[in-house]
């Protein structure tokens, strides 16, 4: 079951070495961040509350919380809530829930380390005023188009704003008027000049970065108290410093932002706002996973256009989607540990994630029998109205978990592909008598050996039932049953007692490994077979399955009772993954 302890759980294994661990260990050895009353390692996970977390965020969560856990430190959860136009409490709530579900906590010794950038708005504003008075910041009144044009490009240096020479006094007065709501959105912004020739910097991020913009929008926490909001590049390093972060770990796209990060904290330290040492930023390669897209914009587009049923659609790479699909926190942690941490971008195949899921579920999941594409089987010589109890291990490798029981009756359900009217070479399941040769003999797993005697067909020639006879002395586990030597062995359920259930067969959302590579349109690569819904028949004990309970449907794969649509006595099942990689070319 899903809550049973997995003997192969990642927490039981020593973490793999990587360059981030080497940095932390060197800092610990040197005493770089020894501060009274604080742990020597403090990391943070700083999501923007403008969408649902996805599998890429899961890697960042595991890296940051994992470093803190393994070096007796702590990891803060901090929301970068500086863009009220795109942020909602719904996103805050789901992020909190997802981090908890993955198995991590920001609480330490009864103290919560959950923070919001909006908690720092007043201090951020005062630091911005200091940068203006110190001559490092100015109010720019260019239009957005002019700012973009004058910024230049990688081959062309930028052009100084005509407002760059504004005096600190004039910029300060204008900045205070911006705060007082005297200007419209986009009328002015506050920019930083790191050096006299910043607009010629080969690093585009250093070309007078904006740190405050006007935005008359209601904030989900501060309401209408502010109409100017700090930019991420300004907020992030200051928030890190205010929270005493030691190792600010982020993905490679922020590598070009590190010079400004360092400059800003060094400048504010000179101004007396922070004591040394200040946080340092380190970058690692983001997770690029095949057969998914992780762009928040594209994920939102799928939801808005009805391509999927919502953020928690089991085909989605969101954490809520993976959770509803039936993934376990341990499987995702194991995946993040296996793929490691590097400085170079690369692609991880979806099969690696699915392999971690199978490794985690195999020792946990109790077994069950399910017929997904049913065909009626009639045992003509079995007494009508009678039944015989059969049994099978709850888990074949853990006999201490006991047995599950189910009846065999005159009419059963078998899989459609367990019968072939004209058998191919090497086919050992049911086929009818051919000429003078008898029909095939097949063992009903945990039951009797049977021999196919014929079929029923409808007016269109479709097979509606298979007829067999059984051998009463062939029941599995009874004396004499071994005298029957048959190659075919199939699963089945009693038609009289089976649970009829909706089963959703989920597959990968895209047919191409990199559906949006090079900025191309990803929609033509949507997999039309990513969801198939079937009416299946399950062994009767499955009616007791609880939401989020996982099973291995023998022969078919791993399945979970849907956490949303399952009701008492009437579970709905999602296929989590097949028993083996079905995408191997």
Structure description:
- The protein has 585 residues and is an alpha/beta fold.
- It has helices at 19-30, 55-70, 89-101, 121-133, 144-150, 168-179, 232-242, 258-270, 296-304, 319-325, 329-339, 350-361; strands spanning 42-45, 74-79, 107-108, 111-112, 114-116, 137-140, 189-192, 210-214, 228-230, 247-251, 280-284, 367-368, 370-371, 374-379, 388-393, 403-408, 411-415, 441-444, 449-457, 463-470, 488-490, 493-494, 499-506, 531-538, 550-553, 557-561, 573-577.
- It contains 12 helices and 27 strands.
- The protein is elongated and about 105 Å long.
Radius of gyration: 31 Å
pLDDT < 50 stretches: 1-12
Query: What's the tally of helices?
Result: 12
How much is the average pLDDT? 94
Query: What's the arrangement of strands in the largest beta sheet?
Result: 12-25-26-27-23-24-13
Distance between the termini: 32 Å
The percentage helix is 10-25%
Q: Strand percentage, roughly?
A: 15-25%
Sheet bearing the most strands, described? 7 strands, mixed
* Structure class: alpha/beta
**Number of E strands:** 27
Shape summary: elongated
EC number: 6.1.1.18
Protein name: Glutamine--tRNA ligase
Subunit structure: Monomer.
Subcellular location: Cytoplasm
